Amino acid sequence: MKKVVHNKVRILRRSLDLTQEQLADIVDVTRLTIISIEKGRYEPSVGLAIGLAKALHTTVEELFWIEGVEK
If you average pLDDT over residues 39-66, what whole number do you get? Predict the structure, then answer.
């Protein structure tokens, strides 16, 4: 069975009143990358995941999780 990675990027980004473009600038990626991550179409590298967690004031473990795997 394929493991599906979920995330809270959109929820946390909005809670901080950041646009996709602003978050992309902070973590040095394109807005399209942020869109793809938020929609679950792209799984970020470890470095990008850490950068996103830092920018969104959370941990990688709280930001990303795999369906069916306990946190």
Answer: 97
